[in-house]
Amino acid sequence: MKKRLLGLTLACSMVVMSLAGCSGGSGTETTAASAAETTKAAETTSAAGGTAETTAAPAAEGDTVLKWAVWDIAATVYYQPLIDAFEAANPGVKIEMVDLGSTDYQTVLATELTGSGSDFDIVAVKDVPGYMTLVNKGVLEPLDDYIAKDSVDLAQYGGIADQLNINGNIFELPFIRSFWVLFYNKDVFDNAGVEYPTNDMTFEQYDALARSVTNTTPGEEVYGTHYHTWRSTVQLFGILDGKNTIVDGTYDFLKPYYEMILAQQEDGVCQDYATLKTSSLHYSGAFAQGNVAMLNMGSWFIPTLIEKIKTGEYGPEVANWGLVKYPHAEGVEPGTTLAQITSVAIPTSAPHKDQAWEFVKFVTGAEGAEIVANTGNFPAVTTDAVIEAISSIEGFPQDEASAEALNTVQTYLEMPVHEKSSEIETVLNEAHDNIMTEGSSIDEGIEEMNAGVQAILGQ
After folding, report:
1. What is the DSSP string of 216-259?
2. Which residues of the chain have pLDDT under 50?
């Protein structure tokens, strides 16, 4: 029964997960990801300049009504189940959603919270840059006293909560998380007589495996792996050891990964970056062709892949797929990955802060996580129940390794909290493009990153 129910929600959750997975953490490149993955999901009419849509069950006299700022109520399947469960456990408290629309959500939210008369009790925060903006404006309540009072275990977020600390305070907690995994086509490995990828592969092992299934024969090409044109598909490999971040200002640590991938490109192990840019081939289209053995991509691709196989848009060439954990550097624990998050926070102007905290604690905790997972989406907290719910979706690979791939141990934010993240993003994107098209050498590209970002940090 669980599989059938989850299958019914999958078509809707495909859009939702794509939005959650691509909404934060990587600036301009996630905008591209979101546009490609959402398949033109309908926007609400409450974009900038429009009228916000409000959704709530009738409140009885004497009830406390908490207003929750969100986006895309109609397309988001987990809002109402979270609300229903919370209201059932908290008689006398009602949640009223106010839809500010997906387009320019963070801008509209910031305007609302800095204006006079804002009465939101809880706000959804769409991405990390948006979080930084709201904190800088002084409109979010620090949650540290609440966290300490209720002994909330921040370790349940896999290291994410620590990365949300700004000057000693945490102003939001995550409840949706999209993280990077390795997709693979089992038929490609079977045809080559090569063992499948595992949940514990170093980059050296990953490179060797990709090469072992590659076929460069004209007309019979098989690519051992595939990298989309986002800088994240290369640069994120370098921050898995926790020693560096994308905003540090020195990027020499990226050199081994560019060397590996450019060598793969030269040897036909992966498709040529310049050709991919020119053709605008989307990663989903590349994988769907059936001649790509492995694809490093975010978990937001899981429901998309399931749905397109189910509808027949993707053929049998790709129907036999699986998942494993992200490859890792020597000494890094398997299950270490990168993520984008959606969070909830309490405005400083909230009329009912204590009750709002109870809702925040609920939706970001283990009980809320299971509710989110039962809609086919990935919560920030991973428990056995969450993994069971996701892996029980009809169309999810039924091998043990694919289910285990969902169990992460350490998660780093793709783009850390930083006031100049968007400017840094621009420099890194340009240098990445130059390296991958071989318009500059790896050393020249890294020097371009170092000089450009250090100039930004010195302003």
Report:
1. --TTS-BBS-B--SSTHHHHGGGGTTSS--TTSS--GGGHHHHH
2. 1-51
